Amino acid sequence: MNHPEPEPEDHQRVSSVESPPENNAAGGTPSQVASPASPASPASRSGPLRRPIPGRYRRSAWSEILSRFVWLLGTAGVVLVIWKVGPRVVEEYHYSARLGQARAEYQNAVHLLQDEPLAKVSNAFKLIAQKVRPSVVSIGTRRPSDSTRGQGSGVLISNEGHVLTNSHVVENAAEVEVTLFDRRRYSATVIGIDVESDLAVVKIDAPGLIPATWGESDELEVGALVWAIGSPYGLDQSVTSGIISGKHRRDKQSRHYGELLQTDAAVNPGNSGGPLVDAFGDVIGINTSIFGESYQGISFAVPSETARFVSQQLIEHGEVTRGFLGVRQEAVFQGIAERFNLPNLDGAFIRSVDSRTPADHAGFQSRDVILEWDGKPITVPSMLSRYVEMTPPNSTVSVKIVRNGVEQFLRATVGTKSRFSRQYGRRKRQ
Question: Global pTM?
Answer without folding.
Answer: 0.71
